């Protein structure tokens, strides 16, 4: 097997602070069915959304180093907080393609908006980075971007309260100011949020388009692999492990959650010591 | 200055996964006003309550090593999850007195109960360790102990929703089965929970005694220091830093939260790289 062919067949590395990035992995599985995936969820240090840029960058760097030991041909930062805080640094340090979720999400929102008023719901870290605002303004200087940190959404999602009066009440408190401003497009700027899409949609109303960056991220990855000649040309044969999952803690809980998100059954998730990377 | 005198004047090390342990530190400040304290909050890896025994033990061990570099004369594990999962291991590894919050909490509940029915609210980790049950049964085999994991309490406390209809609704869901069993004593088995004591008390009613292990923990520490001849004999002089605070991330947020718990103004919290210990 030639080196180039090996590269074609190498997996895509996908990482997140925990389980949220599985919503992005799911979309990659749908749009790029021939690609193998190595997923890493940092369950020992989750969540990232209320931590500092320095810490999130350090953690992300360790994960990228781990993924490189798995011979990945490209990396998807399937976490908005890590994309917001660490992507620029990571791009400088690795020589394989690396894709975040923020730029694709911003682009999708720019296409979707009619009135130029775009809302972003995300973690405290992503909102305080101002990154969605920056990308959107760069590409559409007339747009008005309103960000809102929703720190309780992640724990509510993780507790499974996806459609629950409590989640609805909390969502109403977070979203009221976005409704008052008259946004017509709302970016779900955290990979956990697609799970409460219907609750958010109910409050925002039919006239507001909800943007899940996962779809656009998988599309960007697809284009990038094609451009670099890195696409896998056929579905890996029987006996090849298509998807592999690694976590830094508590593999059981991860598997349980993952099985509620992915249709593909997760056979096993392996625990590794991420601090060693 | 003799070595023994130095030891007298050495600080107490207190640690937690984050800010919750400050409720224990506050109680030590009250009951042992002559003692210096070095506090460590693991804000880069918080929370511990949904992580595994292996991970919590590894994190706790690193923190104990850090505290020992600060020449502490005793250590208080001001976190129920770390006390439940790691205390036995830590005791084997250090030769200074080390106190957790679980045993003191269990003892206080045994004294308080009239009908022998004791409830425990805590993190998933503490509840699944079964440790409160074990300690209480050892000392009072007739007691009936009912544990309930309350995973949303920590995020609700951290968001400041201490007295809020949402916290009340969530508390009602968690506590109903404890009320139905007819407990007369409820252990607040997580150092965050004293902040929502009034909400919990409102739901449980006046006839149920709420036990905050912090008080009993400070008492146990006091007795232990006396027994070992380690008490500080007078209040440190002017110019001595009485309390020092270290965190693994985001010192600003920690300071803000700490100032809402402690009457003593936190002048500064220093960030250290805990993974190096």
Q: Return the string of H and E elements of chain A.
A: HEHEHEHEHEHHEHHEHEHEHE
- Give the tally of β-strands of chain A: 10
Helical stretch count of chain A?
12
Query: What's the helical proportion of residues of chain A?
Result: 40-55%
What does this structure look like?
- The structure is a homodimer of 277-residue chains.
- The first copy, chain A, has 277 residues and is an alpha/beta fold.
- The first copy, chain A, has helices at 3-9, 22-31, 53-69, 80-93, 102-112, 124-129, 131-139, 153-158, 165-181, 197-204, 213-227, 251-261; strands at residues 12-16, 37-41, 74-77, 98-99, 117-122, 144-149, 185-188, 209-211, 243-247, 269-271.
- In chain A, the strands form two sheets. In chain A, strands 4-3-1-2-9-10 form a six-stranded parallel beta sheet, sandwiched between helices.
- In chain A, helix 4 (80-93) links the parallel strand 3 (74-77) and strand 4 (98-99).
- In chain A, helix 2 packs across helix 11 (213-227) and helix 9 (165-181) packs across helix 10.
- The longest helix of chain A is centred in the N-terminal third of the chain and has 17 residues, at 53-69.
- Chain A is globular.
- The interface between A and B is medium-sized, with 23 and 23 residues.
């Amino acid at each position: 097997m030639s080196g180039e062919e090996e590269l074609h067949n190498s997996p895509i590395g996908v990482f997140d602070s925990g389980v949220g990035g599985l919503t992005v992995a799911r979309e990659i599985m749908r749009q790029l069915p021939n690609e193998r995936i190595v997923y890493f969820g940092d369950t020992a240090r989750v969540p990232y959304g209320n931590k500092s840029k320095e810490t999130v960058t350090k953690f992300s760097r360790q994960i990228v180093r781990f993924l490189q030991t798995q011979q990945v041909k490209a990396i998807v930062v399937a976490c908005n907080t890590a994309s917001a805080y660490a992507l620029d640094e990571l791009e400088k340090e690795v020589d394989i393609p690396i894709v975040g979720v923020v730029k694709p999400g911003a682009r999708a929102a720019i296409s979707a908006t009619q009135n130029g008023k775009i809302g972003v719901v995300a973690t405290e870290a992503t909102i305080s980075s101002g990154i969605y605002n920056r990308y959107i303004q760069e590409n559409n200087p007339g747009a008005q971007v309103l960000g809102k940190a929703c720190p309780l959404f992640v724990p509510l999602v993780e507790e499974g309260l996806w459609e629950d009066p409590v989640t609805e009440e909390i969502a109403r408190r977070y979203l009221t100011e976005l409704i008052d401003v008259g946004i017509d497009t709302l970016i779900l700027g955290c990979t956990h949020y697609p799970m409460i899409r219907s609750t958010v949609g109910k409050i925002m109303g039919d006239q507001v388009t909800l943007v899940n960056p996962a779809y656009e991220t998988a599309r960007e990855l697809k284009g990038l692999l094609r451009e670099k000649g890195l696409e896998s040309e056929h579905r890996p044969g029987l006996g090849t492990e298509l998807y592999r999952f690694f976590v830094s803690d508590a593999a059981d809980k991860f598997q349980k959650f993952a099985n509620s998100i992915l249709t593909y059954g997760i056979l096993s998730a392996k625990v590794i010591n991420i601090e060693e990377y």
